[in-house]
Amino acid sequence: MKIATWNINGINGRLTNLLRWLEEAEPDVVCLQELKCTDKDFPARALLDFGYHAIWHGQQSWNGVAILSRHEIKETRRGLDGDPNDTHGRYIEAFINGIVIGCLYLPNGNPYPGLKFDYKIRWIMRLTSHALKLKSFGLPVALIGDYNIMPTNLDTYKPEKYVNNALFRPEARELWMELLEQGWTDALRSLYPDKRIYTFWDYLRDAYGRNAGLRLDHFLLNKQLAERLLRGVVDADVRGWPHSSDHAPLWIELQ
Length: 255
Hints:
The protein is α+β, with helices and mostly antiparallel strands and 255 residues long. It has one domain: Deoxyribonuclease I, Chain A (4-Layer Sandwich), CATH 3.60.10. Helices cover 23% and strands 27% of the residues. The chain contains six helices and 14 strands. The strands form three sheets. Strands 3-4-2-1-14-13 form a six-stranded mixed sheet. It has a six-stranded mixed sheet with strand order 5-6-7-8-12-9. Strands 10-11 form a two-stranded antiparallel sheet. The longest helix is centred in the middle third of the chain and has 21 residues, at 115-135. The protein is globular. The N and C termini lie close together (7 Å).
């Protein structure tokens, strides 16, 4: 089973790229972030014609998450508990082919310090509480998406540049470690413990051409799924396509 994630950075504006990549990569399941469209504007028909069922949680101009699947898909949740006033489209969850899949777009949190960073920290705490609940079900679970966290120095081309960036602040990284300590496996890092891996390259200063990247997109797998992990790949060449997202798609393969 091949499961992918991609911060598409505007699904309708980049639908041609998405369909091209789906045809080439042939994933079974895809988690998308930053749809930047309302629910009614989501291109469900185009994706269904391409063989993918979908559920989505959109938001006008910002955020938005979706899960695509070649298999039957049953939505189990949208949004996280802990803040009834949070209306952002940042989390959606489904049961697919025996696996619970949570698709998330964690807040960026910049500028630090500030209210956006405070919101980010609270959101991670809410995710951590939900992750613990998911673990208790005894089912295979994957929490997938754009975490907007660089967990280690290997996840950025220039760590000293990001000392006061919300993506690299110790407060966020410590909460990431607390999440892992529940028993989750960072899939790509487990496969490549010493390798610099990037999933995002800024549009500015030819970051992609210089390979000045960041690893912001992650697969967290519980024990039942981590034992089935075969490989993981970042399709970095897609970042170089015309009119590309600033993120590349990445995927894992499960036994």
